Amino acid sequence: MTQALAISRFPVPDLADMPEDIRARIVAVQEKSGFIPNVFLVLAHRPDEFRAFFAYHDALMDKPGNLTKAEREMIVVATSNLNQCQYCVIAHGAILRIRAKDPLIADQVAVNYRKADITDRQKAMLDFAVRVSTEAYKVSESDFATLKSHGFTEDDIWDIAAISAFFGLSNRLANVTSMRPNPEFYSMGRG
């Protein structure tokens, strides 16, 4: 039998030793998904940062608006691939497959969204998200005009930028902590 690989290079607290609010959130996620995504366990090492991270995550990813939940996940997958974040590509790829009801979409978006079976609107969205991830200093009014020509509002543009920026932080933390994707993610939403 092989030894289980560590999910983080930093200490991972036991569920029983976590603050009650964090433990309750993790248990709720476990009841819904059937397992605990490693990001919750790894970030529980720093309770105040866990709370801030997930509050901002939820504000960006769970809000209603013109961007669908699947489109929000597309942004995460495309930009996380640029940042070579294995955890986020695998975990959010699974969520994207489920939200888009498409077993192929996450792999297409992660490898080359420009060739993916998505709309021109979604490609424009991802072009902008990638620009924010790689060269935000070059964002200009022409980027806004392009997005508006595809029906995006100012609030949508803020959301695209904020998701891209937030997951830049997430990708870096996942890489520095050596966060491992849960095995469950690999098969989710594939059929």
Automatic annotation (TrEMBL):
<dbReference type="InterPro" id="IPR010195">
    <property type="entry name" value="Uncharacterised_peroxidase-rel"/>
</dbReference>
<dbReference type="InterPro" id="IPR004675">
    <property type="entry name" value="AhpD_core"/>
</dbReference>
<dbReference type="InterPro" id="IPR029032">
    <property type="entry name" value="AhpD-like"/>
</dbReference>
<dbReference type="GO" id="GO:0051920">
    <property type="term" value="F:peroxiredoxin activity"/>
</dbReference>
<protein>
    <submittedName>
        <fullName>4-carboxymuconolactone decarboxylase</fullName>
    </submittedName>
</protein>
<dbReference type="InterPro" id="IPR003779">
    <property type="entry name" value="CMD-like"/>
</dbReference>
<dbReference type="Pfam" id="PF02627">
    <property type="entry name" value="CMD"/>
</dbReference>
<feature type="domain" description="Carboxymuconolactone decarboxylase-like">
    <location>
        <begin position="47"/>
        <end position="97"/>
    </location>
</feature>
